[in-house]
Amino acid sequence: MEINNIYSESGIIITLILILIPVVIASMIITMKAYAYLDRKQKIRELEKFNAYLKELSPDEVQKLEQRKRELEFALSNNELAGDTSPMDHKGLITAVNDVETLRFIEQKKKSQPRPYIEPELTKLILWYIGCATFWLLLGTTIGEYLGIKFVAPDVDHFSWLSFGRLRPVHTNMVFWGWASLAMMGLAYYVIPRVSNVPIQNVKTGYYSLILINASVIIGSICLMAGINNGGGEYREYIWPVMALFGAGIVISLINFFKTIANRTTKEIYVSNWYIISAMMFLLVIAFVAYWPTWQSGLGETIVQGYYMHQGVGMWFMLFNLGLMYYFLPQQLNKPIYSYSLGILAFWAQILFYTLIGTHHFIFSAIPWWLQTIAIVGSAGMVFRLWQEQPIS
Q1: How many CA atoms lie within 13 A of 69 on its CB side?
Q2: Integer Cα distance of 353 and 338 in angstroms
Q3: pLDDT tens-digit series, residues 92-139
Q4: Which of 7, 122, 201, 360 satisfies CB 3.0 to 4.6 Å to 260 for a cystine?
């Protein structure tokens, strides 16, 4: 006799739905009530804190607040032109026109602040990173130039190690992992101590990362020229032991940065640290997904390649460089961040949307349609994320 599952009966399903509807609604109401209660408590605490702050103000500060209150409450009385009140002319636009030498129609840029002190050991480490990155930039672009020559003179050499198919991934990976990655890491060793207001946790471990990353680029380039490669897609030609060396270097610096930020003297974690630390964490995830052998065949490899290339650009280079720009751009313009909250909102929007768009190059392909749809939605969501990126007032 055939035995049916009780939960497959339509009557049972409808009964469960009818039970769940009031339970879910009640849960939502309780949650909203609890949130409103906590919000009121928070506002009361903030009001008490603000009242305590007002009691500690000096007479001059109170006078400035009252002046600001009067300014905010000001409304036109429609008889200003006939009034007898003296105009407020702090910039000398009406009176003392000839005495005020500054440009009075635009906001003046603040004077530059003294450069922060940087430990000589850390300066040396950063210069090593930038120097190695510059070396890989020059060598990588020289190889790229040689590959360009091969387009017009394909028989310029007859060595298998210098064939186009072997040199091209040497060029791309050398610039990808050697130049850009080392340059970003070197700048991170400058930015993270600055925005955390503490010295770097351990300068010595920075050299370990530098050695491992350089070693991965050297060994990877030799392997590619010898015809030893991963056989995967673009930027994924290094074999997994080489990428393991690179990943080990990233892990060492990641721990170093974590400890530095944990010792910070500021209450908030500045937005640059959010971006830089997350980029390093995502790189480890990206590399693990790209080299895990289970899905390295058929459509699985196509999906992984789309994910890997997009996340390599968006969650490693873009995320990392945004963290650097959130420090260097305000510092060079000598102006504060327009909105710290917008920076954090843009960060989470990047995490939410960019991690989904890896397959949007394979629309109308054999890849499952639900995955293509997710990539389309994530790509459209990036418009919202880019609109938020307004770091400077």
Answers
A1: 6
A2: 23
A3: 666 665 665 555 555 566 666 667 778 889 999 999 999 999 999 999
A4: 201
Which tens digits make up the pLDDT trace of 225-267? Answer: 999 998 867 888 999 999 999 999 999 999 999 999 999 888 8
Nearest to 321 by CA among 174, 196, 188: 188
Helix (H, G, I), strand (E, B) or coil at 278: helix
Is 163 in contact with 244 (CB distance < 8 Å)?
A: no
Amino acid in position 263: N
Cα separation of 305 and 320, whole Å? 21
Q: What is the pTM of this model?
A: 0.69
Domain boundaries, the chain: 120-269, 299-393
DSSP 3-state percent helix, strand, coil across the chain (nearest 5): 70, 0, 30
Number of H helices, E strands in the chain: 12, 0
Say which residues have a Cβ less than 8 Å from residue 40's Cβ, sequence separation at least 6: none
Instruction: State how far the Cα of 5 lies from the Cα of 12, in Å rounded to an integer.
Output: 10
